[in-house]
Amino acid sequence: xxxxxxxxxxxxxxxxxxxxxxxxxxxxxxxxxxxxxxxxxxxxxxxxxxxxxxxxxxxxxxxxxxxxxxxxxxxxxxxxxxxxxxxxxxxxxxxxxxxxxxxxxxxxxxxxxxxxxxxxxxxxxxxxxxxxxxxxxxxxxxxxxxxxxxxxxxxxxxxxxxxxxxxxx
Length: 169
Description:
This protein is an all-alpha fold.
């Protein structure tokens, strides 16, 4: 997915603007609210950058550890396989690389790229605040809109970011 948290799909510009349109905001007001949201997210991501990069690094290390195929016929060969597999995961490099990418995205104000790494579930609450809704009320409103035929633009915006499921052969 193009965001680190599924809730943050609703913060992506195209989706946020579709929500604002469904809520009857003018284009100008919707763009201003999106600009305010961008500023909030970029400022928060910059403030939280070390914590964000640490959590990203933990997820990457966890994912790499789950890939380890420990094949051994005794304790010594199992330990050797484990040591070799873990030696290939460089925590400092992962952290430095993601911090470099995220710092550059923040500096360039690449909002969507920041959302790819910024794992803050509270961003939806800020989106709601920008639109005059509490998070729960906004979630409920979006759910109703997605179940109705009233906001095809919202459905289309979400679909544009989601993968297309394909049946297994």
